[in-house]
C-alpha cells in the first residue's frame, strides 16, 4: 500500500486539481478540485499554503496559470483564471531567521531590521523557486514579526473563546496587566510566533480555573479577578458586598 508520501500519491493528488477522478470514484463527472471551483466561481481567492512543500507537478501547474491565465481540465474545457486572485504562502528562510532570532518581542517599527530580514528571505526564495516562477508574481510581501500589539489581539481572541464557554456557567473573569503579560510571554516563541498561544491559555488559565471550579472555590454567578504571581495565575473571586470579603485562590 502506498503512503501519502509516495510520489505516485503526490502525482495523483496533483492531477485531481485539474483532472477528473477515475471511473467509479466519487466526483468522477467533475472536472477537478481546483478547475471546477474556479470554473463555477471565477471571481475567487485561491490560497496555496506553504507552497515550497508542493510536488513539482503543482509548481508546473501554477506556472501555467501564471503564464497563460488558464488551465484545461480532463474534459477539454479551458478554465479562465484571469479574474482569480492567487495567494501563495511560504516559510522559506524560517530556519535562517530562527538562528538569528532574539528573545522577547521584536520591534516591528525598526525599518533597518525589516529591510535586512526582507533581503535575507528574498535570497532564500531565489534558491528554492525557479526564476521564471518568481518573475511571474505581481508582488512578494514579507510579513513583519509579531509585536506586542498583535500578540495582545491574538490573546484577546483566545480569551473570548474561554469567556464564551464560562458564560454558560454564569462565570466571568477579568485579567489585569500582569496576567496578560504572563500569557503573552508563554504564548510567544521567536521560532513559532503566536502558535503556542492557545496552549498557553489552556495550561495557565483554563486548566487551573477548571480545577478551582471542581474544588468549589469558584462559584457560579460571580466574577473572577485574575492576576499573576511567581509565574502563576492567581484567581480572586469577587463576591457581592453583602457577602463579605473576596476569596482568594491560586493555581
UniProtKB/TrEMBL annotation:
Coiled coil regions in record: none
A GO MF label: ATP binding
Family indicated by similarity: Belongs to the ClpA/ClpB family.
Protein name: Clp ATPase C-terminal domain-containing protein
Keyword Nucleotide-binding annotated: yes
Region of interest called Disordered, as start-end residue ranges on this chain: 1-26
Biased composition (Low complexity): 7-24
InterPro entries: ATPase_AAA_core, Clp_ATPase_C, ClpA/B, ClpA_ClpB, P-loop_NTPase
GO biological process, alphabetically ordered: cellular response to heat
Superkingdom in the source lineage: Bacteria
UniProt keyword terms in alphabetical order: ATP-binding, Nucleotide-binding
Record Pfam families: AAA_2 (PF07724), ClpB_D2-small (PF10431)
Organism of provenance: uncultured gamma proteobacterium HF0770_11A05
Signal sequence interval, chain numbering: none
CC terms in the record's Gene Ontology section: cytoplasm
Sequence ranges assigned to domain Clp ATPase C-terminal in this UniProt record: 146-235
Gene3D superfamilies: 1.10.8.60, P-loop containing nucleotide triphosphate hydrolases (3.40.50.300)
Amino acid at each position: 500500500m502506498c503512503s501519502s508520501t509516495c510520489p505516485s500519491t503526490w502525482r495523483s493528488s496533483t492531477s485531481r486539481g485539474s483532472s477528473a477522478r477515475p471511473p467509479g470514484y466519487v466526483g468522477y463527472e467533475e472536472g477537478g478540485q481546483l478547475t471546477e471551483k474556479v470554473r463555477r466561481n471565477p471571481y475567487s481567492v485561491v490560497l496555496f499554503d506553504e507552497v515550497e512543500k508542493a510536488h513539482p507537478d503543482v509548481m508546473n501547474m501554477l506556472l501555467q496559470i501564471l503564464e497563460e491565465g488558464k488551465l484545461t481540465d480532463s474534459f477539454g474545457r479551458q478554465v479562465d483564471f484571469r479574474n482569480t486572485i492567487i495567494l501563495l504562502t511560504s516559510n522559506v528562510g524560517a530556519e535562517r531567521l530562527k538562528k538569528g532570532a532574539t528573545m522577547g518581542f521584536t520591534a516591528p517599527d525598526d525599518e533597518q531590521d525589516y529591510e535586512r530580514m526582507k533581503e535575507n528571505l528574498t535570497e532564500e526564495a531565489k534558491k528554492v523557486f525557479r526564476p521564471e516562477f518568481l518573475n511571474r508574481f505581481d508582488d512578494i510581501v514579507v510579513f513583519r514579526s509579531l509585536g506586542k500589539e498583535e500578540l495582545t489581539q491574538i490573546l484577546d481572541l483566545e480569551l473570548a473563546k474561554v469567556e464564551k464557554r464560562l458564560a454558560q456557567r454564569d462565570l466571568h473573569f477579568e485579567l489585569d496587566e500582569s496576567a496578560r503579560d504572563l500569557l503573552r510571554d508563554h504564548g510567544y516563541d521567536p521560532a513559532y510566533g503566536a502558535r503556542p498561544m492557545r496552549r498557553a491559555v489552556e495550561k495557565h488559565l483554563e486548566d487551573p480555573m477548571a480545577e478551582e471550579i471542581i474544588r468549589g472555590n469558584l462559584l457560579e454567578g460571580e466574577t473572577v479577578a485574575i492576576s499573576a504571581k511567581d509565574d502563576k495565575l492567581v484567581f480572586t473571586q469577587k463576591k457581592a458586598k453583602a457577602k463579605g470579603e473576596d476569596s482568594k485562590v491560586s493555581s
